[in-house]
């Protein structure tokens, strides 16, 4: 081993081991070494380390008899602190860089027009667009263009109500919020004022299926909307105020209120305002006999797809008679879990609705199994739980042109029927990347 390797790294230890007869000169040297090699706490940043060096007393360290330290003040100040440098990893990693190049705004220097920036920003997803808007005021004003905020996908996310109102105020047309959790703890009423400042909401397609949102927050979001064409409120709380808001949207074509709460307490006559509605889903809404009487009496006459499943003891033959008189163009009908429908009402349904192609009568135990032999013109027939396995095979043999029990799920007025998952009602909401 070399002499340098055998030499101890601690100069204080080397001196103390060779002290046989301590004198005043050696004691001074030991005290100086103790002051120099005293342990110093690691600093958090180079700025704090420099501040500590500036406030230290140079007289304690710039002594001529202090080893490993020159008498030149500048040489010592430029020397990094050994303990802090080696004990604190990455201490100089995030030091701010100073550029010597001239500060030139190339967008202003080359006079790049806003149209080119709009074309560039149109290829960004929402996250990159927000990052670009934080760059400067010009980028922020360009990023607020309504063309960039027409389609928003917030499904299965957690958002604040004030942020949601700001998004709607920017001109959002297609909004997907299936499974979204809306927080109202930090709700700022200024968001509502901003929405009123920008004008009425431009929403045309809104999906609130299974969203964790209160009825008051839903009223704030939909307040003033008059251009809705499709909306899904599955498993949401519906209030009379929300029904009045929906009543103002005469162009509504798709309405999904399946499993919604509070609908029996509302005035269901608002359904008569939808002259252009094609699909309506009122399944599992806990409607009683009187509610269903209001529904079938005010139901839009141009309906082509209707779901009244899950009404159990509420849907009776009288409702079926009124339904077939008003909706003569029905093509898809779901009456599953309606146990009080008789065979006579089922026969009337098949005779009056000549355009009917898909019929769901799952667990409708009031209809005799032999009545299903009359479904000659039906292409898809769902009768889960109504006939035994042998009877189902016999129906397939007697009705070769009818598919039996092939669609267990109902997609009437649903925003994302399979196989689509990037769009709602045919309107794309997912970004390209």
List the helices and strands and how they pair.
Layout: H1 3-6, H2 11-17, H3 24-36, H4 46-55, H5 73-78, H6 82-87, H7 106-109, H8 114-121, H9 126-133, H10 137-143, E1 151-153, E2 158-160, H11 161-169, E3 174-176, E4 181-183, H12 190-198, E5 205-207, H13 215-222, E6 230-232, H14 240-247, E7 254-256, E8 279-281, H15 289-298, E9 305-307, H16 317-326, E10 332-334, H17 343-352, E11 358-360, E12 380-382, H18 389-398, E13 403-404, E14 423-424, E15 427-428
Helix pairs in contact: 2-3, 9-10, 11-12, 15-16, 16-17
Q: Would you give an account of this structure?
A:
With 433 residues, the chain is α/β, with parallel strands linked by helices. 34% of the residues lie in helices and 10% in strands. The protein contains 18 helices and 15 strands. An eleven-stranded parallel sheet has the order 1-3-5-6-7-8-9-10-11-12-13. Helix 9 runs antiparallel to helix 10. About 12% of the residues have low confidence. This is F-box domain-containing protein.
